[in-house]
Amino acid sequence: MNAVVEEQQRTSRWSREPVLGASGAPMAVRPTARDIAIFQLLDRFRYLPADYIHAFLGGSEKALRYRLNLLSRKPNLYLSRPHQQRHSADANCRPLIYELDERGTRMLQDRGLPFSSRSYHRNFAHELMVAQITASIELGTRENPNIRLISWPEILSSENTPKATRESSNPASIPVSYTLRGQSQRGEVVADGRPFGLERTIEGRRTYLFFPGVEADCATEPLDASAIDRSSIAKKFAAYTAVAEQAIYRSHFGFPNFSVPIITTNTSRMRSMMELLDRFAGGRGSKLFLFKTLPAFTSSEKPPAPGGHMLTVPWQRVGFPPLSLVG
Fold it and tell me: How far apart are CA 304 and CA 281, in angstroms?
């Protein structure tokens, strides 16, 4: 690589200006099969840091970072680097976060591959957190041959899923009636990400766990709220508890069981949630909710290395021992 390219890459981390080749001309690339795999990952998870992409694809991390750089610059523009990531105090030191740009989506479309329609997200930190959580769970299933991920498309195509849900315009949304502070409420509860399941083979026996998605908490909503119609953690506890008690997870999804993973940004917040749940459950504890932390991308706390920690590290519960999802 010549000095011009080295200087440009060293000083223009956030630029979309082209990388110049040895002749001084912008470097244009033709997407390879490995590039298409990158596009598919970013279509599935929306946002991923470069080290997460490497965790999925393997190979040389240095070569991958260089390729991601090319794919996000002119004249290629298959990927983009969300500007919100610069809000982190150490943004210049962390792995860059990527998302699929319009040209990358068109590439998937032109090849007849599945792709998602892009919608605007107001809360980048929240969407990134959801992506990292769900990506970690999937990486965990790849690392453990005895665990298989049951994806949302597989659930929707299953005969065990009620026809009304399969044909619904919003099948992941769970209708529920519940009581909060003595007042009856009716609404719908929708988790972050997509519903999924785990098929576990333990000592030759298959067992299954199912989830409505995950609840990613960036500590932006109150634990409890005086206004009954305002979103709060207590409201989610009430709604999901009603889903479990009324077995709506069976009638809506066809799930034989149901757990709700809640991931927040720090241990103090997690403990406050667990104390609230203990009061909500009258001191009897709860097996329904699973708790874990993941630092916010703006936090000075070092995040865990990309991998299957969301699956392999046990989850905390109120009134019960930690639960290992891998058996």
Answer: 32
